[in-house]
Write a structure and sequence with these properties.
CATH superfamily: Molybdopterin biosynthesis MoaE subunit
Number of domains: 1
Strand content: 25-35%
CATH architecture: Alpha-Beta Complex
CATH topology: Aldehyde Oxidoreductase, domain 3
Largest sheet: 4 strands, mixed
Number of strands: 8
């Protein structure tokens, strides 16, 4: 599952995409919007995918992971739009 969405991301739903009966674990990364960057306060961040290339790039990354390591599944979900501090912007599950 590779997805770009403007809706809140549920880490559990991304994990469920990679669960398999033969897998012994799922490794996850959950990215959050933090309240500072480079010494400055952050209130919100806006991500755009005007070119439509983000999904293709995420798919390339997932394919590279599968080529390099013996993993069963890769799921990556990235959120676009205006996100506030504490919002989830990225979930990766392997």
């Amino acid at each position: 599952m590779i997805a770009i969405t403007d809706q809140p991301i549920s880490p559990e739903s991304v994990v469920n995409e990679v669960k398999a009966s033969g897998s012994g674990c799922v490794v996850t990364y959950v990215g959050l919007i933090r309240d500072h960057s480079r010494g400055k306060q952050v209130r919100s961040v806006t991500y755009e995918d005007a070119s439509g290339k983000a999904e293709k790039r995420l798919r390339e990354i997932a394919d590279e992971i599968k080529r390099k390591w013996p993993v069963d599944n890769v799921a990556i979900c990235h959120r676009v739009g205006r996100l506030n501090v504490g919002d989830i912007n990225l979930v990766v599950a392997i």
